[in-house]
Design a protein that fits this description.
3-stranded mixed sheet; 22% helix; single chain; 122 residues; 4-stranded mixed sheet; 2,3-Dihydroxybiphenyl 1,2-Dioxygenase, domain 1; alpha/beta
Length: 122
C-alpha cells in the first residue's frame, strides 16, 4: 500500500492570522471551527494546516508553494497578493514574459507566483 498526503503543515506564530491570509490568497475558507487564538487553523480544501509554534522562522523555507493564477494574469495576481499582505522578495520576471515572482506571507514564508495557464499557452 502507499500513503497519501493529508496536509502540508506550516509552523507559524499565529495560526489563525496566517491561515486567514492563505484563505484569502486561495479563495478557500478556514475550517468552520477555527477561531482567533487557536493553536491550529486548517484550509481543508487546500490541505494546508497551520500550527502555532514557539520558535521563530530563521532561515529560507526548505519547501514552498508555487501558485498559478486561475482567473487573472501573473502580474495581476502579484498585485492582489501584495494588497492582502504579501511582501516582494525577488522579481524573476523576464522581458519576454516568462519567469515568476517570489513573495513572502506575513510570517516570512516564501512562495512563488507563476504565469497563468492562459499566459503559458500564449
Amino acid at each position: 500500500m502507499t500513503s497519501a498526503i493529508r496536509h502540508v503543515t506550516i509552523d507559524c506564530a499565529d495560526a489563525y492570522r496566517l491561515g486567514s491570509f492563505w484563505a484569502e490568497v486561495l479563495g478557500q475558507p478556514l475550517h468552520e471551527d477555527d477561531r482567533p487564538g487557536d493553536p491550529e487553523a486548517l484550509i481543508e480544501s487546500a490541505g494546508l494546516l497551520f500550527v502555532a509554534v514557539a520558535e521563530p522562522k530563521t532561515v529560507k523555507n526548505r519547501v514552498h508553494l508555487d501558485l498559478r493564477p486561475q482567473d487573472r494574469t501573473r502580474d495581476e495576481e502579484v498585485e492582489r497578493l501584495l494588497t492582502v499582505g504579501a511582501t516582494l522578495v525577488d522579481d524573476r520576471r523576464n522581458p519576454d514574459g516568462t519567469g515568476w515572482v517570489v513573495l513572502a506571507d506575513p510570517e516570512g514564508n516564501e512562495f512563488c507566483v507563476e504565469r497563468s495557464t492562459t499566459e503559458r499557452a500564449g
